[in-house]
Specification:
The complex is a heterodimer of chains A (397) and B (366). Chain A has 397 residues and is α/β, with parallel strands linked by helices. In chain A, 53% of the residues lie in helices and 8% in strands. Chain A is built from 16 helices and 6 strands. The longest helix of chain A is centred in the last third of the chain and has 39 residues. The radius of gyration of chain A is 23 Å and the shape is globular. The C terminus of chain A is likely disordered. By secondary structure, chain B is an alpha/beta fold. Helix content of chain B is 46%, strand content 7%. In chain B, strands 3-4-5-7 form a 4-stranded parallel sheet. In chain B, strands 1-2 form a two-stranded parallel ribbon. In chain B, strands 6-8 form a two-stranded parallel ribbon. Chain B is elongated and about 80 Å long. The two termini of chain B are 36 Å apart. The model of chain B has no long low-confidence stretch (mean pLDDT 91). The chains are: A alpha/beta (397), B alpha/beta (366). Chains A and B meet through helix 3, helix 5, helix 8 and helix 9 of A and helix 7 of B.
Chain lengths: 397, 366
């Protein structure tokens, strides 16, 4: 009988998955020495596998996903022990896509893992994620759409396809024994900082491995005024900024490097009036999971969430002074980055002129360009994209 | 009377595969044994039913339609109302067109891939005594003409080529740029794509003739602007008439765009271009329908761009073949040709109708 196991982590978004996937990716060599395969030569290999399996577009990234699922499943089939595959958008896979995925894993013993968090935290987090991906929908309209039973908008159909946990579990666990389906609950606010990691480690069988669990790749959350600012930026500039420029400039530079540092600003939360509806739904889901007999890592009570916030800040109508403050930080970051790029351009122009005058090889100029780009995160992002396109990163397709 | 709803459902599937058109809610035909582990999704089944309606039940691609994946984002895969299923149950005939288009795009993409890349056409040897030229500009015209000329023994390129920049009325150039992209990289939806350029107050890159001409000027023997593609024949030294491609239906363009988007995640960029142009474009060119036109609210931008480009191209001193007045300037709306029906945007209903007609044919090897 095959010893092969595949631990397929299929969701949900906004449950600490970025951190988990980063730790797994950075420790993949060590994991292999313990019989655990985390396939892929790039950190987003499983994301591309999901895009490929589900025929999804994602701002042009799907072009890099051609054949990605076949590579992941091929690696799982050829590995004699445990393979971990993880991406939260697998949650939205259709039964037909799931059949294809499971068939492609061969005769492995498949375990399905789903990490869950209460809707009171998921709803604002998903709205913010929408805004970080160029959307402009107000928070009020977002909530209204997801509460509409018709679920016939792009926003609501996507939200429920990845967040309606019992449906996700039902789709993915068809034909899989309940004891091979694992629900990992995200601990409540105030829990020890490493509690979520401990639960992931237990669920994935990583407790005995001394992993480097600090992560560079987290998905820091923004406050209400900061999210409002990004939404305004999207409304004003979406048609002027290409997706390939939006990612390094807005999402990376403004959101992740600048605005997420403003942790004293009011946090996003669920409006108190919506709280009873969300809690009732969570209650229902807790009962369904309990009845199904799945393995639970953590405590199902965590999934009910806490009480509504005492002071709710509406991100659709934030205090102007707070938004202005955030905007000034954003402008400061852009000015600094622009100044750095200007200096870089001046230096490069001199280098090119000198190279032409002296007949020096073009390689020197190329080296200077590379050194300049490596001086900033957006520059490194651009460089990595270029290298991937040229097939110069290990395992580039 | 059916006691097993699943047997009834499989009976309905068999009915559709046989060319039937009865909606699920009205089906009272025979039951059938399960023909697979899982019933196909409601979106897939309804698309097949509509294809059967469009073709009189003569479609040969039933299997590939019901197996097609739901591409992109939208509703989750639905089941049939009345069945115990992990999928939410619906009456398939009430599904919105957008949901059926997701399956249609996927099925057409699959058909193109399964059909394979066409055999590379071997171009005849280039004629020894020919003019050297490069053909750029309006991609809807330039791309097929380059191919046609190559096949006739007049390949573009060569030392010290004359560069011919194909132009025309700016509103048509914009339509042509988006149209060409629908058979290339799968652009954003028409209105989103158009708004981007209008808000930037720039022409789309592929028809920014000022920049295109400027890029070629340093290396070319000369750069000429050709406002009337019919004149190209004489300019490149070809005796036979050239086939200047006509625009195709706006809904066919939208269907091509959706297929291009799906193909983008399945094959390489080069393969996608070949499959779309060599296999899908001929099938869609035969579909009748209104042509795409610029919306009225974008005409001020179009006129402004047209005037600016004319001024800059004139100042640059490029020789011009064709008439600015007849072939370039955007006149009043009532001077435009009104004999050909136009629409300023595609519709899901229109695109679905195109999909149904193409899916039902053998053209793509379904």
């Amino acid at each position: 009988m095959s010893r092969r196991r595949v631990l397929l982590h299929v969701g949900t978004p906004k449950t600490g998955t970025s951190h988990l996937q980063d730790v797994l990716f950075r420790n993949r060599s060590l994991l292999m020495t313990h019989g655990i395969n985390y396939p892929g030569q790039r950190f987003d290999a499983h994301f591309l596998g999901a895009l490929d399996l589900m025929r999804m577009t994602w701002g042009g990234l799907e072009k890099e996903a051609v054949g990605a699922w076949d590579r992941l499943s091929g690696s799982a089939r050829s590995w004699p022990d445990t393979t971990i595959l993880s991406h939260e958008i697998f949650a939205a896979a259709s039964p037909e896509q799931i059949d294809r995925a499971l068939t492609s894993l061969g005769d492995a013993e498949v375990h399905i893992l789903v990490s869950v968090r209460d809707l009171a935290r998921q709803i604002p987090a998903e709205w913010q994620e929408n805004i970080k991906h160029r959307h402009i929908l107000s928070y009020r309209k977002f909530i209204s759409q997801i509460q509409d039973p018709a679920r016939d908008t792009r926003v609501s159909s996507w939200f429920w396809s990845v967040q309606e946990v019992p449906a996700v579990l039902a789709r993915w666990s068809e034909g899989i024994p309940a004891e091979h389906v694992h629900v990992i609950t995200v601990p409540p606010p105030g829990a020890p900082r490493d509690e979520l990691w401990r639960r992931f480690s237990r669920a994935f069988g990583l407790d005995e491995i001394d992993l480097e669990a600090t992560s560079e790749r987290t998905n820091p959350s923004l406050g209400a005024p900061e999210t409002a600012l990004i939404r305004k930026i999207n409304k004003r500039f979406n048609t002027l900024v290409e997706p390939a420029d939006y990612r390094p400039l807005v999402r990376e530079l403004l959101v992740h490097q600048t605005l997420s540092a403003r942790q004293d600003s009011p946090r996003l939360a669920l409006p108190p009036a919506v709280h009873p509806w969300a809690r009732e739904l969570n209650q229902q889901w807790v009962e369904e999971v309990r009845t199904a007999g799945y393995d639970v890592v953590g405590d199902l009570e965590d999934w009910l969430g806490g009480p509504p916030v005492e002071e709710y800040v509406d991100p659709d109508h934030p205090r102007p002074r707070l938004v202005t403050d955030a905007a000034l930080d954003a402008i400061g970051a852009l000015l600094q980055e622009n100044a750095r790029l200007r200096q870089s351009e001046i230096a490069l122009q001199s280098a090119v002129s000198a190279a032409r005058a002296d007949g020096h090889p073009v390689r020197r100029v190329a080296e200077q360009i590379v050194n300049s780009l490596e001086g900033s995160a957006p520059g490194r992002t651009s460089l990595n994209l270029y290298r991937r396109a040229r097939g110069r990163l290990p395992g580039s397709h | 009377m059916t006691v097993d709803p699943h047997a009834k459902a499989w009976g309905w599937v068999a009915h559709l595969i046989d060319g039937g058109v009865t909606p699920w809610s009205s089906y009272a035909g025979r039951d059938a044994a399960a023909a697979g582990e899982r019933l196909p999704g409601a979106q897939q089944l309804e698309l097949l039913r509509r294809v059967n309606q469009a073709t009189g039940g003569r479609s040969r691609g039933a299997g590939s339609i019901i197996r097609a994946s739901l591409a992109g984002r939208g509703q989750p895969e639905q089941g049939l109302v009345g069945l115990d299923d992990v999928r939410p149950g619906v009456e398939p005939s009430r599904l919105p067109d957008g949901e059926l288009l997701r399956v249609a795009a996927s099925a057409l993409a699959d058909a193109l891939i399964v059909g394979g890349l066409p055999e590379p056409e071997e171009a005849p040897p280039a004629r020894r005594r020919r003019r050297h030229f490069t053909l750029v500009g309006d991609p809807w015209v330039a791309i097929p003409l380059r191919h046609e000329l190559t096949q006739a023994g007049y390949p573009p390129g060569g030392p010290r080529s004359h560069t011919y920049v194909v132009g025309g009325r700016f509103d048509q150039l914009v339509v042509n740029a988006w149209s060409a992209a629908c058979f290339d990289n799968g652009p954003a939806p028409w209105e989103t794509w158009l708004a981007k350029w209008a808000e930037r107050d720039r022409p789309p890159a592929r028809v920014d003739l000022v920049k295109i001409a400027g890029r070629h000027r340093p290396r070319a023997r000369s750069v000429d602007l050709v406002l009337d593609p019919e004149l190209l024949r004489g300019l490149v030294g070809v005796r036979r008439p050239l086939t200047v491609p006509a625009p195709i239906s706006v809904h066919a363009l939208e269907m091509a765009r959706r297929v291009a988007v799906v193909l983008g995640g399945l094959v390489s960029a080069e393969e996608r271009k070949v499959l779309l142009r060599a296999r899908l474009l001929p099938a869609l060119s035969a579909v009748a329908g209104p042509r795409l036109a610029l919306p009225q609210q974008q005409m001020p931008w179009a006129i402004s761009q047209s005037q600016r480009m004319r001024r800059e191209l004139t100042e640059a001193g490029y020789p011009v073949h064709g008439s600015w007045d007849a072939n370039w300037d955007i006149g009043d709306s009532d001077t435009a040709s009104v004999a050909i029906p136009t629409l300023d945007r595609p519709t899901e209903a229109g695109a679905l109708k195109v999909a149904l007609s193409v899916l039902g044919k053998e053209t793509l090897g379904l």
